[in-house]
């Protein structure tokens, strides 16, 4: 297996945490499964998908949720504190080329992506989101604290809970979801180390020992993913809708969602008009010459069958799901477009410094002249009063010489 990892490869690592919903009084023991899926891409490269699944057979509302065996305690306390119903967090570096490599098992956006569903009992969603991203930022050593109101949206049509939810939750609590993307987030070993600590054995045993940081980050594409959800019931989605929310300066981003049926062998193009606007100089990000990132678009498909993709249901183990999955069943499939980098004209940020220097110089010159005119006293110069002894002797000598002549 070490020889396989030495090849230029693509690695996608995911932690799937499932809270089972059971009506039986007898609860099953917690379970942990780890799987590795290796696929040769058409370009000759290897695609490695590591999947670690922890099934926590307990309700978060019960007293048994205080006891942790296989489930990571750090995440459990966070989910309980902020009433998290479902969470998906990914750190991705590199570009997945769909035309050359096909579709990945789990698609992810470039940089850091976070999607959270809060429970129906949670009231102050914005405050909970702000505190949650700060906690996750420290837990995963990332810059998730920059997921503020400027980069966060409340999806209305695109995202649906992948786990167990009631019909009333879908109908009345659709505003309990928050979504944000940081496309310029860099992924490094500082993100991998806390991610490994979520596993029951850490990086000391199992497939996690193959996750060598030097070889992992030498690959052309890699992604770390953490998912938390209840058992999925595969509910149907809502009918066709369109949702648009205009953005506010320094308040919220623009948000557009479109839901439609796409027939086979067809192409859908979405276009909209926009106006360009100059930004205030305080609104420019650091290093504005690099450009501005536009978050990738998220496309969720509900396919009538899974004949052309490598996928499985959320309540299945990876290999068991691939073996026993029915290709005629409907599947939910997610794709992300590429992050758009826009280059806008940027002002000369050295101009304020130049203006300050110029103004200070002019003020100094003007102030010096005015100060000299107002503080100096002008008197008549008397040459006799300022003669020294040598000058006086010389004048006396010339006078005597003139008399003798």
UniProtKB/TrEMBL annotation:
<dbReference type="GO" id="GO:0042765">
    <property type="term" value="C:GPI-anchor transamidase complex"/>
</dbReference>
<keyword id="KW-1133">Transmembrane helix</keyword>
<keyword id="KW-0732">Signal</keyword>
<dbReference type="Pfam" id="PF04113">
    <property type="entry name" value="Gpi16"/>
</dbReference>
<feature type="signal peptide">
    <location>
        <begin position="1"/>
        <end position="29"/>
    </location>
</feature>
<dbReference type="InterPro" id="IPR007245">
    <property type="entry name" value="PIG-T"/>
</dbReference>
<protein>
    <recommendedName>
        <fullName>GPI transamidase component PIG-T</fullName>
    </recommendedName>
</protein>
<keyword id="KW-0472">Membrane</keyword>
<feature type="transmembrane region" description="Helical">
    <location>
        <begin position="351"/>
        <end position="370"/>
    </location>
</feature>
<dbReference type="GO" id="GO:0016255">
    <property type="term" value="P:attachment of GPI anchor to protein"/>
</dbReference>
<keyword id="KW-0812">Transmembrane</keyword>
């Amino acid at each position: 297996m070490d020889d396989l990892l030495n090849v230029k490869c693509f690695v996608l690592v995911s932690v799937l945490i499932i809270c089972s919903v059971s009506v039986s009084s007898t609860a099953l023991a917690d379970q942990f499964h780890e799987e590795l899926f290796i696929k040769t891409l058409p370009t000759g490269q290897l695609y490695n998908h590591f999947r670690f699944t922890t099934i926590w057979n307990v309700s978060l509302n019960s007293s048994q949720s205080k006891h942790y065996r296989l489930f990571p305690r750090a995440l459990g306390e966070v989910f309980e504190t902020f009433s998290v119903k479902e969470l998906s967090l990914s750190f991705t570096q590199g570009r997945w080329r769909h035309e050359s490599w096909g579709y990945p098992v789990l698609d992810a956006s470039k940089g850091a992506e976070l999607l959270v569903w809060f429970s129906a009992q949670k009231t102050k969603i914005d405050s909970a989101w702000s505190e949650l991203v700060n906690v996750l930022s420290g837990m995963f050593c990332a810059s998730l604290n920059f997921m503020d109101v400027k980069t966060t949206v409340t999806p209305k049509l695109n995202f649906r809970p992948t786990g167990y939810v009631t019909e009333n939750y879908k109908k009345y609590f659709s505003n309990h979801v928050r979504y944000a993307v940081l496309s310029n987030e860099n992924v490094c070993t500082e993100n991998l180390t806390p991610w490994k600590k979520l596993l029951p054995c850490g990086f000391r045993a199992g497939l996690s020992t193959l996750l060598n940081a030097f070889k992992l980050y030498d690959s052309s594409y890699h992604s770390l993913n953490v998912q938390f959800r209840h058992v999925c019931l595969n509910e149907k989605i809502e009918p066709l809708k369109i949702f648009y929310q205009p953005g506010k300066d320094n308040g919220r981003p623009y948000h557009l969602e479109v839901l439609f049926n796409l027939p086979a062998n067809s192409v859908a193009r979405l276009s909209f008009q926009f106006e360009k606007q100059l930004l205030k100089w305080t609104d420019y990000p650091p290093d504005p010459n690099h450009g501005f990132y536009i978050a990738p678009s998220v496309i969720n498909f509900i396919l009538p069958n899974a004949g052309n993709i490598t996928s499985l249901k959320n309540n299945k183990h990876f290999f068991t799901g691939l073996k026993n999955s029915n290709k005629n069943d409907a599947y939910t499939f997610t794709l992300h477009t590429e992050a758009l980098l826009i280059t806008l004209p940027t002002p000369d940020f050295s101009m304020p410094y130049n203006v300050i220097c110029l103004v200070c110089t002019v003020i100094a010159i003007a102030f010096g002249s005015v100060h000299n005119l107002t503080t100096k006293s002008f008197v008549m110069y008397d040459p006799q009063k300022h003669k020294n002894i040598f000058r006086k002797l010389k004048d006396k000598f010339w006078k005597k010489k003139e008399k003798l002549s």
